[in-house]
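Progress note, project year one: complex with fe (ii) ion.
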Amino acid sequence: MNRQTETSEKKLTRRDVLKMAGIGGIGLLVGAGGMKTFFPQPTQAEPSASAAASKGDYIPFYGKNQAGIITPMQDFISMAAFNLTTSSLADVRKLFQSWTLASARMTAGQPVDDEIENPHLPPVDTGESIGLAPMKLTITFGLGASFFDDRFGLKSKKPAPLVDMPRFNSDEINPDWSEGDIVVQVCADDPQVAFHAMRNLARIARGKAVLHWMQEGFQRTASADPSGSTPRNLLGFKDGTNNPIASEPKLADEIVWANSAESPSWMTGGTYMAMRRIRMRIEVWDRSSLEDQEATFGRHRHSGAPIGKSGEFDDLELGRKDSTGKPLIAPNSHVALAHMDGKVKILRRSYSYSNGMDVKTGQINAGLLFICFNRDPRKQFIPMQQKLASADRLNEYITHVGSGLYACLPGAREGGYIGDTLF
Ligand SMILES: C=CC1=C(C)c2cc3[nH]c(cc4nc(cc5[nH]c(cc1n2)c(C)c5CCC(=O)O)C(CCC(=O)O)=C4C)c(C)c3C=C
Ligand SMILES: [Fe+2]
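Model obtained:
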């Protein structure tokens, strides 16, 4: 792709522009003249040679909806929240323009911007993904409730479903791992590709936003399970069996995508993400019997089938009783409560995490980075979590330690940028 650009005065190459700015990195360039002065309108970045060699590995960045929501789950996640350090809406706009361009390039397997190869300047791209395929990289942006405070004059634009997350029973939420003005979810089939994307987005944000929290996560890789069976969480159970099939547009409309009935028009094509960092008491779990573990979830560990059944995808049938009249699936089991009479649904997209050892206790510091998407958390995630927090048998083994609710922006069209329906 020829990425030479032109101003009204004279022809400038990208390299000239970078030299004039004195340092590499898109984010550092947009300050004075604004991005449109120097840069061509963003277009879909072309996949790199390595991407072309592995066609299926490339997920386009531009589209009606952001990728990374109904996209089949990749193997790794790097997730972070940023707090804005600027109070200028123009700066926020520039940040999202720069992030959009960089994301379109990185998801196509390209460096964050063209390299300048000046030995006296830092490289434009941090380099750790040079030569790597795109690995189905997706980058998804959302806005927290604090984005709509007094700073940017957008208070009246706050969507009604973007409420403050309530406090739930036995929450032990650490504010250092919660909320944030902006959330960025990076997913990829390679951990280094995911890390590289997040790192470069943080670099671009310098001067406008700072990292507030960051968490990496994983599931089993596709090469460990070529059959693509339901992945298991760190408690050893298949997790995701009864997730809605997001590729069915009618279901996605009902469950995921913001609807004009409750959301403003600028959210059309967007959704709401609930995030919970849930620490697992792994050592306690590992000492509990198989019978107790299965009763906790209401499913068999090996097959993933509902208790008393043999097929993973068999109907739950919560009314079934044993010969003594006792429900086969305990009413306080995780699935019995989360099922919500089959009427309330969310799209789960969670990853396991491990943060090594807790130095205070010597225990493994691991759990679930719970992520779900829903069209109105007031009617979906929040009542569900209220029910789980009050009675779930699983609560003996888990603690919610981080939390966030975010409005995930609609996708950007080529030539536009993420957030352009709002600011
Ligand atoms: C508020 C929403 C939910 C939270 C928080 C949550 C935490 C959590 N879940 C598991 C493991 C499993 N969850 C399963 C099913 C399931 N979970 C939720 C919601 C939340 N889970 C729903 C809506 C469902 C589906 C219910 C149904 O209708 O059947 C299962 C069973 C298999 C499956 O369907 O995915 C497991 C296992 C953990 C470990 C956890 C917190 C650490
Ligand atoms: Fe669950």
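The chain has one domain: 76-114+121-408.
The first helix runs from residue 14 to 21.
No further modelling is planned for this target in the current period.
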